[in-house]
Amino acid sequence: MPETYPPSADFAAAARLRADDYARRYAESVRDPAAFWGEVAGRLDWFKAPTQIKDVSYALEDFRIRWYADGELNASVNCLDRHLEARGDKTALIWEADDPEVPARHISYRELHAEVCRLANALENLGVVKGDRVTLYLPMIPEAAYAMLACARIGAVHSVVFGGFSPDSIAGRIADCGSKLVITADEGVRGGKTIPLKKNVDEALKRPGTNSVETVLVVRRTGGAVDMQMPRDRWYDAVVGEQPATHAPARMNAEDPLFILYTSGSTGKPKGVLHTTGGYLVYASYTHEQVFDLKEDDVYWCTADVGWVTGHSYLVYGPLANGATSLMFEGVPNYPDVSRFWQVIDKHRVTVFYTAPTAIRALMREGDAPVKSTSRASLRVLGSVGEPINPEAWRWYHEVVGDSRCPIVDTWWQTETGGILIAPLPGATTLKPGSATLPFFGIEPALVDANGQELDGATEGNLVIKDSWPGQMRTVYGDHQRFIDTYFKTYPGRYFTGDGCRRDEDGYYWITGRVDDVINVSGHRIGTAEVESALVAHAKVAEAAVVGFPHDIKGQGIYAYVTLNAGEQPSEELRKELVAWVRKEIGPIASPDHLQWAPGLPKTRSGKIMRRILRKIAENQPDQLGDTSTLADPSVVQSLLDERKVK
Ligand code: 6R9
C-alpha cells in the first residue's frame, strides 16, 4: 500500500474546498471551460468586463491563444487600488533583510500604492510609454515589487533578470527585447556578501546590442561606491522622491503584454516567455487562493526570488491581487545559521510557507535540531515547487517542519504555464509523498508515447496538456514561430511540457523530470546548449557536451565533457579556469560541478552527440550504457570511462 495522507478533519472543516467540491468543480471546468473561466474572471476588477472568454486553437494552420480578448483592466489596480478601501492599512509586503539585526519593514497596501504611483510617474517622466520594455536587475528588496507594479501601471513590459546572472546574460536579455530603461541597485546583499549589481549592468551595457537603454535607475541598497555615468544613470530616490503619490493607471487590453521572463530551453539562447495581462492575473490569483487555501489573515511566504516565475506569480502578482500579506526575504536559508527560515517563520508568524525541494534537502542534511529549536506553531500549509520532491524530503518537511500537522502542496508548473497546473488542494486532496497529485481546475493533462499516441490508465509517458488555460504564455518574444515549434509541433494539437511523467492507478501524476536537454539545478532551468556554447567560446576548447547527473542537494548537477584544441594540455588549473569561465559567462548557477576531459565525444555517424551515453558515464553506471553500436567510434566510450576512473 503506498503511503497516503488524507486531509485532517479539522483542516478540511475550515478549508475553502473539500474532496467532493474538487470533483464537482473539476468536472464543470473541463465540461464548459468558457463558462467556468468567465465566472472566475469576476474575481478581478475590470474597466471593461470581458464578454469573449476563450478563443483558442492549437491547430498549426490556425493557431491562436486568446483569453478575455475584449476585456480591459490594469494589473496594478487589481493588486493595489481595489484593496485601498477595505485593506488600506493591511500589510501588503513584509520585508525581512538578509541581516536579522536589520528591522523588518511592513508596507501597507496604502504605502505600496503610493510607492508604485510615484515610480509610475517617474518612469513616464523619463519617457517610458505603454509597450516599452524595462529590464529589472534587482535584489530581493521592496523596490523590485514597486518596479514590477509601476511597469504594469503604465503598460510597460517588465523583464526581470535574476540578480545572479552575469553581465553577458543581462546584455543578451536587454538586446533581445530592446529595453529602454534598466532598474538596478548599487549592490545586493545575500548571506552577508554583497553582489555588484550596478557594476554588472555597466559591464552589460558595454556589450553590443544594448544601446536601446537610455536610462539606468539605481536604488541605493548598501551605499557602496558605484560609478554613475551622467546623464544615463540616475539615483532612484532622487527621481522618484518628488513625484506625486497618485497616478491614473493605463487602460490595458486583457491580451496586452504584462511581462517577459527569459527561460532556458533545450536549444539556442534563452526564450523570452511572454505573458499577457488578463488571463495571467486571473490564473495567478485564482490558483494562489485555491492551492494555498488562502485566508484573510494569512501571512504568506514564498521564498522564490523575483527573478524566477515563482517570484512573479506567487510572491507579487497572485498574493497582491488577492489582498494577502506577502513576505519578501532578501537572504538565504543558511545565514546567519541554518535555522533562519524557521526563525523568520516564528518572527512574522508565517502561516503559509512555499519553498523548493533543494532548500528542503539542504536543511534536512543539517538535522532536526535547528528546526526543533523554533516553534513554527503559526504554520498551516507548506508548499513545494521547482522540481520533483523525493519522498524522503517530503516526509521530513511534513513531520519535522510541519509537525505532521500541515498539508504539503507539491505544485507542478512552468514559466510557460504562468501558474500552477498540477497540485493538491489542501482541504480536498489525499496526499502521496512525491506526487504533485491531480490537475487544477480546467487543466487536462495527458500522457503520450514518442509517437503522440495517448496512453490510458496507470502508465508513464511524456506530459502534454490538451487544452489552454488563461495563464498560458502567448508567445516567445520576437519569435512566434519558435513558440509554436517548441510547444505545439511535437504532439500536434497539444501543449508539450518537456516533462516525463507517470500516472498511477488513482490517476495521480508523478513528474519524473525533463525529457529534453534541460537540466534542473536547484529548481532552476539550465539548457545544456547554453553551457556548451559558453565552454566552446573559450579559446582553448574545441568541443563540449553537457549533461545532468543526480545531485544530493541540487537535484541535478552539471557534468561537462570538454575536448581541448589540438596542442592544449589538460591541467587542474585549466579545469578551474573553465569552470570560472562558465560562471562568468552565464552566472554562478551554471557552474559545472564536474568537468571531465574528453579526448573525443561519442557521436553517431551523422555527428550527433549521444548524450544518453554521456549521462550514464556521468551517473557512474558503465554497465548501463546500452547499445553503442551506432557510434562512429565506439572506442571513445572506453577512453571516457578510463578518464572518469582516473579522477
Ligand atoms: C515553476 C517553475 C519548470 C520545470 C518543469 C519541471 C520542474 C517544477 C515541479 C517540477 C516536479 C514539481 N518542476 N515544479 N517537477 N514537481 N512540483 O519551476 O518553473 O523554472 O520554468 O521550471 O521545473 O521539470 O518543467 P520553471
Helices and strands in order:
Layout: H1 9-14, H2 19-31, H3 33-40, E1 54-57, E2 64-67, E3 72-73, H4 75-79, H5 84-87, E4 91-96, E5 105-108, H6 109-125, E6 133-137, H7 142-154, E7 157-160, H8 167-177, E8 181-185, E9 188-190, E10 193-195, H9 197-204, E11 215-219, E12 233-235, H10 236-241, E13 252-253, E14 257-263, E15 271-276, H11 278-291, E16 299-302, H12 309-321, E17 325-329, H13 340-348, E18 352-355, H14 357-364, H15 369-372, E19 381-385, H16 391-401, E20 408-411, E21 445-448, E22 454-455, E23 459-465, E24 475-476, H17 480-488, E25 495-503, E26 509-514, E27 518-521, E28 524-527, H18 528-536, E29 541-551, E30 555-564, H19 572-585, E31 594-597, H20 611-618, H21 635-646
Helix pairs in contact: 2-3, 6-7, 8-9, 11-12, 14-16
Bound molecules: ligand 6R9.
Ligand 6R9 is lined by residues 263, 308-310, 384-388, 410-415, 436, 497-499, 511, 513-514, 520, 523, 525.
